[in-house]
Amino acid sequence: MNEYSFIFQINRATRRFPIRIKGKTNDKHHRILEAAVKVFAEKGFFQSTISQIAKEAGVADGTIYLYFKNKDDILTQFFSYKTKLVFDRFKEAVEEGPNAIEKLRNLIRKHLEEFQRDRNMAVVYQTETHQITRMAEYQIKKMSKKYLDIVSEIVEQGQQEGSIRRSLYLGLVKRLILGSVDEVINTWLHSKKNYDLISMADPLVELIIEGLGKKRETDHSS
Amino acid sequence: MNEYSFIFQINRATRRFPIRIKGKTNDKHHRILEAAVKVFAEKGFFQSTISQIAKEAGVADGTIYLYFKNKDDILTQFFSYKTKLVFDRFKEAVEEGPNAIEKLRNLIRKHLEEFQRDRNMAVVYQTETHQITRMAEYQIKKMSKKYLDIVSEIVEQGQQEGSIRRSLYLGLVKRLILGSVDEVINTWLHSKKNYDLISMADPLVELIIEGLGKKRETDHSS
Amino acid sequence: MNEYSFIFQINRATRRFPIRIKGKTNDKHHRILEAAVKVFAEKGFFQSTISQIAKEAGVADGTIYLYFKNKDDILTQFFSYKTKLVFDRFKEAVEEGPNAIEKLRNLIRKHLEEFQRDRNMAVVYQTETHQITRMAEYQIKKMSKKYLDIVSEIVEQGQQEGSIRRSLYLGLVKRLILGSVDEVINTWLHSKKNYDLISMADPLVELIIEGLGKKRETDHSS
Amino acid sequence: MNEYSFIFQINRATRRFPIRIKGKTNDKHHRILEAAVKVFAEKGFFQSTISQIAKEAGVADGTIYLYFKNKDDILTQFFSYKTKLVFDRFKEAVEEGPNAIEKLRNLIRKHLEEFQRDRNMAVVYQTETHQITRMAEYQIKKMSKKYLDIVSEIVEQGQQEGSIRRSLYLGLVKRLILGSVDEVINTWLHSKKNYDLISMADPLVELIIEGLGKKRETDHSS
DNA sequence: AATGAATGAGCGTTCATTCAT
DNA sequence: GATGAATGAACGCTCATTCAT
Q1: Chains with ≥3 Cβ pairs under 8 A against A?
Q2: pTM score
Q3: CATH superfamily of B72-210
Q4: Is the confidence at residue A41, as pLDDT, over 90?
Q5: Could you tell me which chains touch chain D, where touching means 3 or more CB pairs under 8 A?
Q6: Which of D218, D216, D184, D189 is nearest to D200 (CA)?
């Protein structure tokens, strides 16, 4: 069963479309998608051309339009595809955590792991999710929300477990977590990338949980 | 006295240039810059055209090339100008803080304040600083670094003052802070913007300092 | 079989290219080339626009860039194509001459014939080969040289045969011949063109060989 | 008395014009003309800009339009100015020759001398007089004619003197002479220019008069 | 007279998209 | 389905010319 299949549901209505979910044809759809992300990562969306993508994918320019409505649609399909794929993995990782803190650690670790593994995806994600203008693109916006929902659940669980403070503005907590992970990835992407991104997970979780501040002994005496 | 004046020092050498720092002429440089940022914020850099910018600025297309080498140069000049301007204000705000925690609070508050005040700038900053591909652009990269340097100083001071833990990976701390502030701004930019961004400063600082976790009583017995 | 075919060998490496040597597609390359030369002849290179050429060739503007790297390349390809074509004919004509004088006559006659037949080419040649500034363009420079080489050979043969004086500065002889033929063509191009250019060949050869001067009887007594 | 004065008669009717024949103002007219020719020689007419000329002349762009109707007019004025100047010298040189052959020699020598002395002029002349398209420009066409008239006179005189054959097609003779001199200059312009152009005069005259052919001894016996 | 900032028409070139094969 | 030649709208940029100062 091909992971890309679900995408067809999006566009089927709008266009002639090569259905044949399990055939070889489908490889082409995949290949174009991966090629596009590679090119986007290298040059940025607007500086990438259909020709470059076609070349990278080893197909003719026109072939791309059999699978994608237009250039934008390539990005959209990429996001909806990767989002589903990656989030399934995120959820899986979270479920394996015995408690909230471990769930958070697993989430962040998986997040870093996936982005380290697929650098092209990482670049496109970082770039496009900060493209305020294009953010109107429904898929992208939805993705952010999904991530934050996962975080919400974890935090709430932690509060019930007593490991996370109750007096927290949840919206802010989510931004702190997503923001810092994003920035860790961003820094890595801009660096020479000769360090292991995943190793940042534990210290980062520690920092998020414990904060920068010293534990005040005075707390106790009060 | 016009805040844009200093930019002239950048290009004076390269091009015939309408200097006359305090005259009316100079307004045009300013006007184009503001117009450009407005258009960039609305459409994104690549989807903005010189014609749109010229129209927004109320000048002819060709006039833009009297002040800017090319389209890219508009963005570059904007960054070098705003960076200097904003960072001066950041530093000023930081200096007014009596201790590290207050300095951090002042920095974040000022950061949110400046970005709330000038939404166009905020959008362009958020977008362009995450543009991995174009990041090669020197000015932009430098800006991030400057911010992180300020944060470093504050954290180190806090460590000496005893308000911030010593056992911290400084690089990570910086990313936590910049990342969470960025994400707070980003969320605001994507929202309806009917809440006050600055009011997020105090809770955010609290969160950064205290962390998510409950103070562990067990700490004491150790 | 199409005479333009060989040009493909020049650019094949540099660009995606519609090969299919004997197909209909190829006509387009030819058509653009002829259209361009016509427009260049009418307006001059710099005052010709891609749009005019495209219109003359009956193709879209963009189509031109499928066959030519840029505007300059049209001229370059034209020269390398015509040079080869015309010089083959020159050499052929020269070879048919039984002796040096006849070879020279054949060369000049063929030269005038070819230029009379294709007036657009003649105009572009006359114009561009005298464009000192642009002459750096390799192809054009080389062409002049080739012509002079042919002349050299003829003159040397004539010297061996005894029909041409030995005490001649060869470089100057070449310039005399090329210059006078050029000027004959030039004059024709500027005239109403209602006379036959080829008919100038015999008198011109006579003039070149015999010179303006009267045979001096005193020669004999010396 | 300034050599440029006569030009004013051409444009006086068409435009506001800085008359003041003997004043300093006139220097500016001269300076612009010389600057323009220098720039034209370096880059070619169409690739030269008014700004470059202005800069070279040390005046403002706008100033040029006080003296010249438009860019074309600069070239036109240059030609009418130089033509007069140079032809006066040609005629003078010709007059000094005691007989036709010497007159021709003087003409060619002076021709080479003038063009060697003012290389910029030489380049512009060679380029523009072969610009078939632009040749419509009245001044340029007239110039060629004047040259040929001088040659005609000389040749006719030579025929009367008995030094030049009578059975000559005069039109062709003129082209032979002008063409070969042109080509000698052209070659020099394209070369490294480290040889003396004037030294070509005598051998060239010899060649033109005597021709390439051996004096046939048989002539005599017939 | 002289300036040079401002103009905007015009051009070369690119590239997403189409469609005949 | 697959191709890739062809299209032409659109854009960045240049530069001759004008005109307020």
Answers
A1: B
A2: 0.86
A3: Tetracycline Repressor, domain 2 (1.10.357.10)
A4: yes
A5: C
A6: D184
